[in-house]
């Protein structure tokens, strides 16, 4: 029998459903993460533009984006909480032995979640109740709290990739924990900045993509031009930076996690002049089928020289490395991420060249088609990045210290499969409700714009986006008994 079959047979039955459940919830949650991390910054940039130029359109966009930000944050809290519980329920071996070492990251993320919830509530409440400068200043900590949350979760994940900051006693349990070293591991810096810029790129393209679709459908007023230009410019500036950070983190993986790098590049034997495969499938005997083979390129990319030695998968025992299927998954995910990133760089360059030459937005339909697809593509790239990170680390849940099979719950596999099915149904309902709310908001805003003769001014902002709300005419007031609000009541939806 092949080594792969032997390893699968040796795994406990509950390992597969536990992995699938964790992968599904993580993949679902990460769809929301870019907006949670980067949308506050994009919204505040638009908010600042509106205040600086007394621009009602920019302020309207900022207010509408803040409403989307709040709804998205609420959904993100639900999916993030599920993930937190799953760490303890599915992987008690990990949390029981190593929680004291890397648990500080989850604590930081929890505090960041709490602070962000408070700040979002204040920011939403303040639109028509606070002075403009006060309101904007109260919103400024929002991006910092989002970055703090990313700091916490990336500290935990980077520790799992390059664990340090502890010693092991005679029973193999961690002692003498150094929290500082456990947080700031060798992979923390590269992972953190690569992740943060990826969130900025993704959120920028997702938001801009909405207005790119509007442009393609003939909505080319200033509202749509501004709604496209600000987030797309932010994403376009960040895209080449992200490309360089991606190259840097790949080089760090080459040095710090050579076996993971071998899986990402499907390198079987340690050698120099190693070719690069674009896609391709690794087989258990070390052969590669399909894909495009580029001679020596992998060694050149790893060390800038064709004689750079690249560590292969066979440098460690079969039980300590990803199997052929896992290596192929990591390789395909990595190539897809790099491919999408390369296309986004070209799109950003197109945008930048048109702006530098003509000081205007591009007018090509193909550009806006690309921009409309960029949001979806960037989300796929983020998903592929996490697949590369997690699958490439197999079979370790704590690199070279604990295997995934050692950490999994003893709960029966049947129970885990049932739980998996229930979670799928629950997430379909959650994301369905999320989509429904967003579509309702879009329809309401579009109707408000049409009712004002095409001017993008929603009724509550008709007078001013700040200060007290205008009084309701006496004929429109409702009495408390009819279920409505008094004339001094809340804003209409």
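Sequence proposed for the structure above (493 residues):
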């Amino acid at each position: 029998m092949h080594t792969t079959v032997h390893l699968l047979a040796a795994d406990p039955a509950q390992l597969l459903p536990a992995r699938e459940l964790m992968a599904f919830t993580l993949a679902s949650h990460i769809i929301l993460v870019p907006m949670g991390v980067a949308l506050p910054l994009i919204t505040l940039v638009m908010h600042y533009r509106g205040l600086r130029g007394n621009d009602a359109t920019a302020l309207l966009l900022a207010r509408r984006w803040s409403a989307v930000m709040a709804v998205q944050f609420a959904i993100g809290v639900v999916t993030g909480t599920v993930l937190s519980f799953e760490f303890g329920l599915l992987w008690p071996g990990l949390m029981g032995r190593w929680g004291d070492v890397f648990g500080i990251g989850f604590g930081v993320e929890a505090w960041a979640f709490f602070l962000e919830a408070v700040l979002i509530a204040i920011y939403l409440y303040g639109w028509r109740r606070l002075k403009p400068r006060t309101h904007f200043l109260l919103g400024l900590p929002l991006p910092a709290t989002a970055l703090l949350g990313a700091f916490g979760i990336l500290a935990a994940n980077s520790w799992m990739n390059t664990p340090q900051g502890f010693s092991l006693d005679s029973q193999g349990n961690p002692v003498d924990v150094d929290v500082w070293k456990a947080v700031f591991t060798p992979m923390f810096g590269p992972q953190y900045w690569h992740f943060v810029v990826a969130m900025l790129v993704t959120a920028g393209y997702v938001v801009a993509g909405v207005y790119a679709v509007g442009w393609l459908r003939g909505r080319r007023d200033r509202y749509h031009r501004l709604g496209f230009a600000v987030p797309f410019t932010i994403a376009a500036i960040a895209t080449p930076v992200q490309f360089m950070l991606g190259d840097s983190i790949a080089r760090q993986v080459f040095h710090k996690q050579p076996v993971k790098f071998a899986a990402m590049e499907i390198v079987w034997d340690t050698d120099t002049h190693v070719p690069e495969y674009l896609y391709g499938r690794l087989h258990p005997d070390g052969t590669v089928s399909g894909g495009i083979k580029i001679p020596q390129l992998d060694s050149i990319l790893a060390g800038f020289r064709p004689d750079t030695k690249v560590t292969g998968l066979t440098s460690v025992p079969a039980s300590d490395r990803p199997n052929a299927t896992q290596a192929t998954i990591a390789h395909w995910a990595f190539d897809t991420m790099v491919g999408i990133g390369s296309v986004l760089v070209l799109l950003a360059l197109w945008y930048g060249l048109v702006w530098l030459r003509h000081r205007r937005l591009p007018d090509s339909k193909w550009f806006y088609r690309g921009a409309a697809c960029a949001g979806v593509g960037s989300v796929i790239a983020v998903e592929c990045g996490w697949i590369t990170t997690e699958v490439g680390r197999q079979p370790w849940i704590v690199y070279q210290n604990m295997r995934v099979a050692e950490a999994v719950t003893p709960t029966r596999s049947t129970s885990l499969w049932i739980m998996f099915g229930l979670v799928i149904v629950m997430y379909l309902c959650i994301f369905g409700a999320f989509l429904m709310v967003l579509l309702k908001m879009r329809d309401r805003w579009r109707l408000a714009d049409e009712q004002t003769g095409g001017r993008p001014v929603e009724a509550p902002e008709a007078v001013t986006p700040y200060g007290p709300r205008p009084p309701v005419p006496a004929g429109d007031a409702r009495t408390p008994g009819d279920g409505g609000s008094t004339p001094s009541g809340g804003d209409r939806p």
